[in-house]
# Entry
Amino acid sequence: MRPTFFSAEQYLKQRRPIDPVRCFRSSAIERAVSWFQSHFSGQLIYAVKANMTPDVVQLIAQNGVRNFDVASLTEVDLIYHGVQGANLFYMNPVKSRAHIRSAYYDYGVRCFSIDHVDELEKILTVTEQAKDLTIFVRLHCDDSGSVLPLGKKYGAEGQQAIELLKLVRQRCERLGVTFHVGSQAMHAERFGEAIRYAGDLVRRAGVMAELLNVGGGFPIFYKDGDPVDLTSYMSNIEQSLEALTMVQ
# Structure
């Protein structure tokens, strides 16, 4: 059993380490998971890239999270062997053929993300036109105001996105839509805008999507001026989802 200390200061005073030390704050992780479970009406997906330390992943799973966003085959392997019965979502929209093949055949991954027709064709070819795929079309969205924007890196938009939505609907078992408003997103309204934009593209494509992934990027407190209350983010998401449902 690992020793327990009530603060980093206590550990330093007692142990006086000369090598780097990793501290594991289990209570902080449990509070974070509990907060999202209480305030978000959808299913939680943990992005493994945020912290893939096995202790962290195990504690998150023990607190009821069964869905994991994996961005590499290393992360796929970690969750597959570390969390029994986990649902794997390979949400990196650019993957090698070898990694797609291994994810599908060796680890049973059935959910992938794309933002270009070439990636769709790659997945379908590697999986031999599999009929059990769930494909999320990743959309470009307004990520201004985030500390780390991702819009220039990923995401289909406009007519390209509409055509992708149609193709996935025709060729895959389930269609999903996803976006990311940027890491450390400082404006809650970006989530609502992205949800409404996704709904508009789905309607213009004339298709039905079974799944919507609202991404991540929720901010945490780093310094004075950073937002610390996520309630407005949840309200923005819920209100936009309700409006989307009413329109459909």
